[in-house]
Amino acid sequence: MAKRQAIRWHIAVFLAPAVLVYTAVMIYPLFNTMRLALFAEIDHQRVYVGLRNFSTLFGQAVWSDAFWNALGNNFWFFLIHMLVQNPIGIALAAILSHKRLRFAAFYRSAIFIPAILSFVIVGFAWKLILSPIWGIAPSMLDAVGLKSLFAPWLGKEEYALTTLALISVWQFVGIPMMLIYAALLQIPEEVLEAGECDGITGMSAFWKIKLPLILPSIGIISVLTFVGNFNAFDLIYSAQGALAGPNFSTDILGTFMYRTFFGFQLQLGDPHMGSAIATAMFAIILIGVCIYLFGIQTRMRRYQF
Amino acid sequence: MSKARRNPVNMIAAHAILITYTLIALFPVFVILINSFKNRKSIFREPLALPDADSFSLVGYQTVLKQGDFFLYFQNSMIVTVVSLFLVLLFGAMAAFALAEYRFKGNTLMGLYLALGIMIPIRIGTVAILEMMVQTGLVNTLWALILVYTAQGLPLAVFILSEFMRQVSDDLKDAGRIDGLSEYTIFFRLVLPLVRPAMATVAVFNMIPIWNDLWFPLILAPAEESKTLTLGSQVFIGQFVTDWNAVLSALSMAILPVMILYVIFSRQLIRGITSGAVK
Q1: What sign for the dihedral angle of Cα B143, B147, B149, B154?
Q2: Mutation test of the interface with chain A: which of B124, B154, B275, choosing the one with the most A Cβ atoms within 10 A?
Q3: Same domain for A30 and A67?
Q4: Between B91, B99, B274, which is nearest A185 by CB?
Q5: CB contact under 8 A, A282 and B124
Q6: B86 and B43 share one domain
Q7: Average pLDDT of the residues of chain B
Q8: Which of B4, B15, B244 lies nearest to residue A201, judging by beta carbons?
Q9: Are the CB atoms for B39 and B245 separated by under 8 Å?
Q10: Which of residues 24-43 of B touch A (CB under 8 A)?
Q11: pLDDT 10s digits, B78-93
């Protein structure tokens, strides 16, 4: 029994590598970034300035306009994902989960393919396809008699952000599809048959039985979409560059932070302002995750089969 | 069985919707691939036609191979992905074992601490990460990327693997202990082989985001000798933006490795997602 009291070193050995790497490369930099947001560089010296970076960010029109523009764009980006990506994903999963559907595995794998491609490929591929020079998009619209609808979508201020959001939806629709598909497969046959005995079949079975049962999965997908969208960067950067053109109309928090912290063209990079923006992003993501964890997840009914 | 669920009209409609969406999903990839094998004139004249004897050309690929160091980029991506995955799996499994197997003070707290990173993106800390990498001289080396991706992958790995390790039978481990095996031998010899399917799931989940990441290579390792394939093709395409043959070929070459990985691992990936590993 004396041995029991001894320090069990193997526990420490098992935990140490993961905890060290995780703390040193993820948690410490996260707090260090928030700390750096309270400093500024004056005459090549790092000086503590308190909350001045934040008052610049929210108080000076040059900064606050850019920030609110990026935040608003980011919300629009997120909204389109919620309204387009997730419903399409749910619909595809509902069709795929049909018991007697043939080739389901093929459809599933094929629809998931865009999700494995890098943003660089997706961004440029769509840029080429939508390009008025190449003319794939206009000639395809022409084939169905809708040529008048064509516009250089990525180049117009009023369409560019929506177009990019839809490209991102195209890319990631496979993820909600897979997760919902998994949730639908777990609904036991007896529940559906019991519904059939009461005359609930087809579409009404989906709305009345399946949908309530997969609500927890929809909740998880929403929060994953939220976190993913609010630190998105790669697609905008690949398709529109760091300036998020035309005229910053596709600027989101990720590109705004990158420009501020790394610099672009005439503006010098400022790690301290970059940290302030990162801190604001952290706060936004934290609020979103907390709303989910405490406001939605705890109220959701979970059914055990 | 109800009629509604066997209705052939419904089935045809289901196939029609799925085929339409499959075409939408694959069309851009298809267009890029076929046009990368055509000469410049045919790319513009008939973008949707398959390459034939007249229009076939490899000039784009020749430019790419001459101008860009794609083999080096590919090698860098490979090293970063493989080493990061190895470290995520090794460190993640070790920590998961400690959390799942032993009762000690602060077990739950440690579990929560490690799980924090599932929801918080590591990109938020980029400014401080860059500063740290500059101070330690790791900037523009593959180690900077490997460390970041290892830290990024660990939270979910620990979470998933500890769920699976709780299911490993205690009798087996106790039998090992009676036979005098050390805790390390029990972990490596008895437990690890049993959670191999879960390890594969974790590996597949981490592989694609690491391979495709643009943010960290752009900030931590933009030097020519440490560029990954994703960053390398991004820079290359940016420079050759008017040379359509080269751009299309570069895109195709960037698509190829992930497609091969996907073909090899798609069953594992889909099984991982549908088995409810990410609930």
Answers
A1: positive
A2: B124
A3: no
A4: B274
A5: yes
A6: no
A7: 88
A8: B4
A9: yes
A10: 24-26, 28-29, 31-32, 43
A11: 999 999 999 999 999 9
